[in-house]
Amino acid sequence: MSSSERAGLSEHAKGLVIVATGVLILTPDALLLRLIQADPWTLLFWRGIGFFAVQMTVSACRHGAGLWRVIRATGWIGLAIMALHGVTQLLFVYSINHTLVANTLVIIAASPLAAALLAWLLLGERTPPRTLVAGGVALAAVALTVGGGYALGGIAGDLAALVLMLVMALIFVLLRKAKARDMLPAVALSGIVTAALALPFAPTLAVGGKDLIYLPILVVLVVPISFILISTGPRYLPAPEVGLLMLVETVLGPLWVWFAFAEEPTGASLIGGGIIILALGIHSWLALRAERRRPAAVAQPA
Length: 302
Known about the structure:
Number of strands: 0
Radius of gyration: 20 Å
Low-confidence stretches: 1-9
Strand content: under 5%
Helix content: over 70%
């Protein structure tokens, strides 16, 4: 084995560790939201502040005195991402509190495939047939899950998750359009948007009891750190592998809530989730196989 091959394996292993760690850190997000007793608006304020503080600290360490130049370089796309990402926090917390956790995470899991469809429709981006098929299947599974929520009276939370999924898909498309720029500062500033939207409705900013333990874990560690690690992963791993690892959060997130609160997923949620996981898994496997074949084909003499 050559030194370059060993280096490649090392980079791949690094990517696996980074993304897997980020996903595992993210999995208790929904559980912590259920454990925290503070008013949802108070929670959202501190969630936004923690997200901004950690992400912007990382950006400041990365760019130093050039941070303001990097922020300005994000342009109108940065402003759009800042606003949209700020709203996603509100939608996520609302959905978690108004429907089954499994429903929320299953619906959100379709966002990467929805993003591919949006990129095809809005940007004219060439999209492999496998992605269009998988996206259509995933959206059908989302409709099934939302229908199950309607039957249980959780339609408001399911619709919030549906809007969240579409907004996340749009954010992915914008990030792809601006892939040459560092958009982390714009994402970090979205925390200020979340906090500003929540502040007028928060009855108090004070927290007490066990929230003094759970809230810092959520807003300083789980949400911002997991995002940093997951967004770093694609530097070392093909996107399909990152997508496969993200499925861990869809599976484990509802399990933690199930164990802690005996909140059992509905049949529609389990079926919809199974369909989405299967569609994502097959799609990611096919995409990964195509990426691994491409270098070999390029290496062959003409």
